[in-house]
Amino acid sequence: MSTVSNSTTNTARQQGHLHLIPVSLGEGVPSSLWLPEDVRTLAARLDCYIAENAKTARAFLKAIGTDTPLQEITIHVLDRKASEADMHRWLQRARDGGEIGLVSEAGCPAVADPGAHVVRIAHTLGIRVCPWTGPSSILLALMASGLDGQRFAFHGYAPVAPTERAAQLRQWEQASARQQQTQIMIETPYRNTAFFKTLLDTLKGSTRLCVARSVTTPDESIQTRTISDWKQSPAPDLDKQPTLFLFLA
Q: How far, in Å, are 33, 49, 138, 144, 183 from residue 20 at the CA level?
């Protein structure tokens, strides 16, 4: 019994870790408001990261404070040029029993985020994947929307072409009514205003729409109204601000 237990313990100690560490959803937010102390302590001790954006990652590390000088921390950039071979190479440290952090440009890594590809590879390599608590704009907006939180679907981006976009929104609205399912989507910030107008022009008057702008930041605004009520109200200022749109028919 003792021999088996010690063997299991040694194996666990040799297993590497990929830590999924959430970052702030916006600038000007104290880390004490969005990152638990134990996660901050863990993130501060790591000296190797995979990040969607190196500048954002350095800003995050500077905000939380690091045990290793910032200029000595390795940051692998997960951009469009990154290949699967690159990711395998970056994860070698964890495969050898070390630790690596994975951060997104905003919020939780690997949720509506390219970090999911890294996580998939980590699983194939036998690396332990450790998700840590932090802000998710999708869940926070859903929590605050007053819409159905038991049945929901996150679609990411709607089609860009106007005709295809309107048709897709109608399909999602029909699915929402049929399944009583909240529909969640995002848009490129500079197209928020146009997308909001498309929602008002396309959805039924009784459909409830939540617009969640700049969640957790000083500019946060989360409002839920029927389409009919939105049409009679001043349009929210959404230009170039990260926004989620949720509706329930």
A: 18, 10, 17, 24, 26
CB 138 within 8 A of CB 184: yes
pLDDT < 50 stretches in the chain: 1-13
DSSP-assigned letter for residue 160: S
Q: Which tens digits make up the pLDDT trace of 102-142?
A: 999 989 999 989 999 999 999 999 999 999 988 899 999 99
Largest distance between two CA atoms of the chain: 73
Name every residue whose Cβ is closer than 8 Å to that of residue 112 and which is 6 or more positions away in sequence.
138, 154, 156, 186
- How far, in Å, CA of 63 to CA of 29, rounded? 10
Q: How many residues does the chain have?
A: 249
DSSP per-residue codes, 204-248: -TT-EEEEEESTTSTT-EEEEEEHHHHHTSPPP--TTS-EEEEEE
Specify the 3-state DSSP secondary structure of 167.
Answer: helix
Which residue, 22, 25, 51, is CA-closest to 39? 22
> CA 222, 147, 244, 33 torsion: positive or negative?
positive
Q: Indicate the pTM of the whole model.
A: 0.84
What is the rounded CA–CA span in Å between residue 14 and residue 3?
Answer: 17
Residue of 216, 211, 212 lying closest to 24 (CA atoms): 216
Phi and psi at residue 247, to the nearest 5°: -145, 155
What per-residue confidence (pLDDT) applies to 35? 83
pLDDT of the residue at 2: 32
Residue 103 host element (H or E): strand 99-103
C-alpha span between 134 and 88 (Å, rounded) = 26
